[in-house]
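User: B box-type domain-containing protein, Mytilus coruscus:
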Amino acid sequence: MPVYRCYECSNVLCDDCYLKHDKLTNTKHHTFQSTNDKLLLNNTFKVSDKILDMKSLPGGLLVFVVFRSNKLLTYSVSDKQRNEISVGKQPCRIAIVDRNTVVVLLTPALYRKVDSIEIVDIRQRQVIQHVDCTLDLPSYLFCPMFFYTDDQLYISNRSGITVMDMSGTIDREIELGFRPKDMCYDTKAARIYCIDYSENKLICIDRDGNTIFTFTDTGLKMLKRLTIDNEGYVLILCHEDYNFENFKVHRISPDGKSGEVIITGKQNYIYTENVSSICFQEESDKLVIGMEKTVYTYKKN
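Assistant: Predicted structure for B box-type domain-containing protein:
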């Protein structure tokens, strides 16, 4: 029998009680999760504004980009300490360089283009390098996705990936035939995972753009963000409908041959548009999801 947990009320509910609880005026926007999920909600906290991007550094420190801010936010899950780091212009995406350093894409206004990058020392809380760059990118509601590896940035564009070095010089273009909604890099397997949002697909490629596998499933829809866990599985955050209230996390095997749902969640607000992010904390083996201003951490059941 399905059993659900309401985190605001700290109650466990059967299927009938869950449906009734969900319809009451004072409880219908509570946060629910099936207790059968393989990862269960462990903690929640809020940040100052909508979360555009979020990464977990080695050691567990979370780094956030929030809407319309010229600062990065950091949060330590262990001691709950928060700090801010001022950067030039508005950051829109983050990529990890090493355990103390990140690189950010910067936009002058309204997230319509990227005109520079900055390398930031998180421990020292300061910018250590600013680089102007020119990218031939389409107009986005927000910024393109990117990751760092081997002194290069892989940045999504209209139909693939632009590869740029840390001086701002474009090295090459990888043509994919679609715009990656999100992408991440598996450093151990040297693979790039991309979301093809229009086709509801996960596509795995090598660093030259050659397809390794494509994963599709009838339950896989409205794919938003993705990350990789300690075992090399790809975790994909998906929404169930256009009010962005209900969401799932799918876990796809490293060979692309199988997938399963490991989180079925319902956040406690309905949004007409939604910004979200997902990352994995390797040391604590926890999954972190950011939606709007709220951060959710999950641990194994």
